[in-house]
C-alpha cells in the first residue's frame, strides 16, 4: 500500500468519526461559510453560530487545534481560528460522502 493511499484512508476514517459526533461535526462545519469557503472565527462566534455551550465548543476547538484540523492566529489579545489544510481535506470528505448519498 503506498503512502498516499494510506493517508487517504486515514482522512476518510477521521471524517467518518467526526461525522458521527454531532458536536464535532457542527464545530468543524462552522468554519465553512454559505459559499463553501473557509472562514475565520473566534470561539465565541462558533458557539453562537451553532448554539452550543461555550465550554463544549471551546474544548472542541482546542482539540481540533491540537489535532491540526484548524489553525490559530493571534489578533491582538484575541485568537482567531480557521480550517487548516487537513481540516479542509476532512470537509472535502464530507462533501464527497454527501454526493455519494445523493447518487444512491
Task: Explain what the structure shows.
This is DNA-binding transcriptional repressor TubR. With 104 residues, this protein is mostly helical. It has a single domain, classed as Winged helix-like DNA-binding domain superfamily/Winged helix DNA-binding domain (Arc Repressor Mutant, subunit A, Orthogonal Bundle). 63% of the residues lie in helices and 12% in strands. The protein is built from five helices and two strands, in the order H-H-H-H-E-E-H. A hairpin with a 2-residue loop joins strand 1 and strand 2. It is globular, with a radius of gyration of 14 Å. The N and C termini lie far apart (29 Å).
Kindly summarize this structure in a few lines.
This protein is mainly α and 104 residues long. The protein has helices at 3-19, 22-30, 43-50, 54-67, 85-102, and strands spanning 70-75, 78-83.
Tally of helical runs: 5
Structural class: mainly alpha
> What is the helix content?
55-70%
Parts with pLDDT < 50 across at least 5 consecutive residues: none
Q: Compute the number of structural domains.
A: 1
Name of the CATH homologous superfamily: Winged helix-like DNA-binding domain superfamily/Winged helix DNA-binding domain
Oligomerization category of the chains in this entry: single chain
